[in-house]
Amino acid sequence: MTDFSAWIQACQARVESVLAERLPAAQIAPQRLHEAMRYAVLGGGKRVRPLLAFAAGEVTGADPNRVQHAAAAVELIHAYSLVHDDMPAMDDDALRRGKPTVHVEFDEATALLVGDALQSLAFDILASQPLADDAATQLAMVQLLAQAAGSRGMAGGQAIDLASVGKPLDLAELEFMHIHKTGALIRASVLLGAQCGAAADASVAALDRYAKCIGLAFQVVDDVLDAEASTATLGKTAGKDAANNKPTYVSLLGATRARELALELRADAHAALAQLGAPAARLRQLADFVVERTF
């Protein structure tokens, strides 16, 4: 097995290449919109969701040439969500991935259209590329991503987040919000990668449990980093959650207990993979990566 860091770099390069190819060239009309789309997506980010798709594909023997398209689609949905989240009507942030946010670099109307266009492109890729052996499976994959991105997934979680500013949430309410806002797309990443191969029901159930644990762990660590890391380290404005009086795992539990919770969720994720053996090695490594990251 190749070194984990080398595997990460190879997967990141692979999905970057697909994204660069599928995003319209900046010189194609409307040029400003296409330039902004490429600005929003290329050359930044950890690509955690594509990495999870590639790792889940290894469990089901999926062809990476299939997985790369599912990975790109998920990353486009993620990128669109960041563009919209950063806008003044949402989190009103000026920095993302170490550079000005799209609405700052371009303008608010362009940023709105960038998000719309990236979401459309994600489904274009899922519908047009050969991802599965039969049409029914591929159609189910399109539906899976649609539900993960919609009002009962990521968009719904963001709505709950906006409605929760300044309000005390208990742990169950906070978890419900983040199962949708962050967890839904992470779960879709894992399941889409798996469905590019031959996914047995037992494997899918194990991967689903793993994805739910990692989705929450990712958000817990995000909350800790927002409270403790610097803007330079994060590539986005640090301390925004506290400044905006948003409920987080840190505000509810304290940083120490939040870190403990992330470790517990990682242990649960590892336990979910126990039956999957060696093919799940990358997913185990990614669970460690998500919880131990510093940015």
Keywords:
globular, mainly alpha, two-stranded antiparallel ribbon, 2 strands, 295 residues, single chain, Farnesyl Diphosphate Synthase, 15 helices
Question: Could you walk me through the main structural features you see in this protein, from its secondary elements to its overall organization?
Answer:
It is built from 15 helices and two strands. It has 295 residues and is an all-alpha fold. Strands 1-2 form a two-stranded antiparallel sheet. Strand 1 (95-96) and strand 2 form a beta hairpin. It has one domain (3-290): Farnesyl Diphosphate Synthase. The chain is globular.
Topology:
Elements: H1 4-22, H2 31-41, H3 48-59, H4 64-85, E1 95-96, E2 99-100, H5 102-105, H6 108-128, H7 135-149, H8 154-163, H9 171-195, H10 201-228, H11 231-234, H12 240-243, H13 249-253, H14 255-272, H15 281-292
Antiparallel strand pairs: 1-2
Helix pairs in contact: 1-4, 2-6, 3-4, 3-9, 3-15, 4-6, 4-9, 7-9, 8-9, 9-10, 10-14, 10-15, 14-15
The biggest beta sheet reads:
2 strands, antiparallel
CATH class term: Mainly Alpha
Task: Give average pLDDT, whole number.
Answer: 95
Task: Tell me the number of helical segments per DSSP (H or I, 4 or more residues long).
Answer: 15
Contiguous runs where pLDDT drops below 50 for at least 5 residues: none
Span from first to last CA?
26 Å
Strand order of the largest sheet: 1-2
DSSP strand count: 2
Q: How much helix is in the residues? A: over 70%
